[in-house]
UniProtKB/TrEMBL annotation:
SUPFAM superfamilies in the cross-refs: vWA-like
InterPro entries assigned to the protein according to its UniProt record, in alphabetical order: ECM_Assembly_Org (IPR050525), VWF_A (IPR002035), vWFA_dom_sf (IPR036465)
The name this protein goes by in its record: VWFA domain-containing protein
VWFA domain residues: 1-94
PROSITE patterns in alphabetical order: VWFA (PS50234)
Organism: Hucho hucho
Pfam families with a match to the protein in the record: VWA
Protein backbone atom coordinates (compact mmCIF):
# COMPACT_ATOMS: atom_id res chain seq x y z
CA UNK A 1 0.00 0.00 0.00
CA UNK A 2 2.84 2.40 0.81
CA UNK A 3 4.44 1.66 -2.54
CA UNK A 4 1.23 2.36 -4.46
CA UNK A 5 0.67 5.64 -2.62
CA UNK A 6 4.26 6.73 -3.24
CA UNK A 7 4.59 5.53 -6.83
CA UNK A 8 1.13 5.93 -8.37
CA UNK A 9 -0.82 8.64 -6.58
CA UNK A 10 1.46 11.44 -7.78
CA UNK A 11 0.63 14.41 -9.98
CA UNK A 12 3.97 13.98 -11.75
CA UNK A 13 2.71 10.58 -12.90
CA UNK A 14 -0.62 11.86 -14.19
CA UNK A 15 -2.84 11.91 -11.10
CA UNK A 16 -5.39 14.67 -11.43
CA UNK A 17 -6.42 16.53 -8.28
CA UNK A 18 -9.98 17.24 -9.42
CA UNK A 19 -11.09 13.60 -9.80
CA UNK A 20 -11.70 11.01 -7.07
CA UNK A 21 -8.67 8.99 -6.03
CA UNK A 22 -9.58 5.36 -5.41
CA UNK A 23 -7.35 2.48 -4.37
CA UNK A 24 -8.73 -1.05 -4.57
CA UNK A 25 -6.70 -3.40 -2.42
CA UNK A 26 -7.10 -7.13 -3.02
CA UNK A 27 -5.60 -9.60 -0.55
CA UNK A 28 -5.87 -13.24 0.43
CA UNK A 29 -3.73 -13.11 3.54
CA UNK A 30 -2.05 -10.83 6.03
CA UNK A 31 0.33 -7.97 5.36
CA UNK A 32 3.95 -8.44 6.36
CA UNK A 33 4.22 -4.80 7.41
CA UNK A 34 2.09 -2.31 9.34
CA UNK A 35 -1.08 -1.26 7.51
CA UNK A 36 -2.24 1.49 9.87
CA UNK A 37 0.31 4.12 8.81
CA UNK A 38 -0.26 3.76 5.03
CA UNK A 39 -4.00 3.83 5.66
CA UNK A 40 -3.65 7.16 7.50
CA UNK A 41 -1.50 8.51 4.66
CA UNK A 42 -4.12 7.45 2.11
CA UNK A 43 -6.79 9.22 4.13
CA UNK A 44 -4.66 12.37 4.37
CA UNK A 45 -4.12 12.29 0.58
CA UNK A 46 -7.87 11.94 0.04
CA UNK A 47 -7.55 8.44 -1.40
CA UNK A 48 -10.63 6.29 -0.90
CA UNK A 49 -9.56 2.73 -0.12
CA UNK A 50 -11.81 -0.19 -0.87
CA UNK A 51 -10.54 -3.55 0.37
CA UNK A 52 -11.43 -6.95 -1.04
CA UNK A 53 -10.53 -9.90 1.13
CA UNK A 54 -10.38 -13.38 -0.32
CA UNK A 55 -10.21 -16.75 1.47
CA UNK A 56 -7.78 -16.28 4.39
CA UNK A 57 -7.80 -12.49 4.45
CA UNK A 58 -7.63 -10.93 7.91
CA UNK A 59 -10.86 -8.96 8.40
CA UNK A 60 -9.43 -6.88 11.27
CA UNK A 61 -6.59 -5.82 9.01
CA UNK A 62 -9.02 -4.96 6.21
CA UNK A 63 -10.90 -2.72 8.64
CA UNK A 64 -7.67 -0.83 9.35
CA UNK A 65 -6.88 -0.51 5.64
CA UNK A 66 -10.29 0.68 4.48
CA UNK A 67 -10.86 3.50 6.92
CA UNK A 68 -14.42 4.29 7.98
CA UNK A 69 -16.51 5.83 5.26
CA UNK A 70 -20.13 6.64 4.56
CA UNK A 71 -20.29 3.76 2.07
CA UNK A 72 -19.36 0.08 2.23
CA UNK A 73 -15.65 -0.24 1.60
CA UNK A 74 -14.86 -3.81 2.70
CA UNK A 75 -15.83 -6.86 0.66
CA UNK A 76 -15.17 -10.55 1.14
CA UNK A 77 -15.20 -13.51 -1.24
CA UNK A 78 -14.73 -17.13 -0.11
CA UNK A 79 -12.29 -17.72 -2.97
CA UNK A 80 -11.28 -16.15 -6.28
CA UNK A 81 -14.03 -18.04 -8.10
CA UNK A 82 -16.57 -16.39 -5.76
CA UNK A 83 -15.95 -12.83 -7.02
CA UNK A 84 -19.30 -12.80 -8.78
CA UNK A 85 -20.97 -12.80 -5.32
CA UNK A 86 -19.55 -9.35 -4.53
CA UNK A 87 -19.35 -7.89 -8.04
CA UNK A 88 -22.63 -5.97 -8.13
CA UNK A 89 -22.26 -4.54 -4.63
CA UNK A 90 -18.62 -3.58 -5.24
CA UNK A 91 -19.45 -1.77 -8.49
CA UNK A 92 -22.34 0.00 -6.82
CA UNK A 93 -20.08 1.27 -4.03
CA UNK A 94 -17.11 2.27 -6.16
CA UNK A 95 -19.48 4.30 -8.34
CA UNK A 96 -21.55 5.65 -5.45
CA UNK A 97 -22.57 9.19 -4.75
CA UNK A 98 -21.27 8.68 -1.19
CA UNK A 99 -17.72 8.03 -2.44
CA UNK A 100 -17.90 11.05 -4.75
CA UNK A 101 -19.27 13.21 -1.92
CA UNK A 102 -16.40 12.12 0.35
CA UNK A 103 -13.92 13.14 -2.35
CA UNK A 104 -15.60 16.52 -2.86
CA UNK A 105 -15.41 17.27 0.87
CA UNK A 106 -11.71 16.43 0.98
CA UNK A 107 -11.03 18.40 -2.22
CA UNK A 108 -12.83 21.50 -0.89
CA UNK A 109 -10.97 21.35 2.44
CA UNK A 110 -7.62 21.00 0.63
CA UNK A 111 -8.38 23.95 -1.64
CA UNK A 112 -9.43 26.25 1.20
CA UNK A 113 -6.05 25.70 2.85
CA UNK A 114 -4.03 26.55 -0.25
Amino acid sequence: MSYVLKELFQESLGMRQEVPHVLVLLTDGRAVDDVAQPSRIAQAYGVSVLAIGVANADMDELKKIAYPASYQNIFYARDFDDFSSIEREFISNICSEALLSEFRQHYEVQNTHV
